[in-house]
Amino acid sequence: MKILAFAGSNSKNSINKQLLDYTLGKIENAEIDLVDINDFEMPIYSIDRQLENGFPELAEDFYKKIKAADGLVISLAEHNGNFSVALKNILDWVSRIEMPYLKDKKILLLSTSPGAYGGGNVMEVAVKYFGMFASGEIVANSTFPSFQDNFQNNEIVNEELKNTILEKITTFQNAFSQVEA
Predict the structure, then answer these.
(1) Model pLDDT for residues 67-103, shown as the tens digit of each residue
(2) Are 136 and 4 in contact (CB under 8 A)?
(3) Where are the domains of the chain?
(4) Is 170 helix (H, G, I), strand (E, B) or coil?
(5) For FRET with 55, which of 80, 158, 159, 166 sits at 20 to 30 Å CA-CA?
(6) What is the fold of 2-180?
(7) In what residue span(s) does the NADPH-dependent FMN reductase-like domain sit (predicted)?
């Protein structure tokens, strides 16, 4: 299985990137394309830009990465209860290339934050956006609260949270096994 993975944060010290790296290290038998959304910085989407200049090459590149993948693992940063502007802009460009662009893609969604809600607001937005609007199949999702307390030295130190993340990874991997059977 081919997996496209990225954190929805453009921070160099993103806690979502740390959670993503941990998660990817637990996925077995997969070809993983880990991308940094900082490598896909584009002008802010507008219909006028699209009509005048077409699609930026970086939007086409990101779209091709999605199309080449069987599934996606995304760890979402929460900015004011929503996606980061950096991620939202990429999604706006890609969605104009093809909608629904995630059809037949299996998705594992994660979010974390320093606070006790663990990015719960962005997760609510993401489940609706990626599942309904972009037509992906969200096979598992999980919020991860109080990141600094529960993740230390590249490990999840809270056993309950660790088991939850491992269960979500198993569910995600099993979704591909069911397709192959």
Answers:
(1) 999 999 999 999 999 999 999 999 999 999 999 999 9
(2) no
(3) 2-180
(4) helix
(5) 80
(6) Rossmann fold (3.40.50)
(7) 1-133
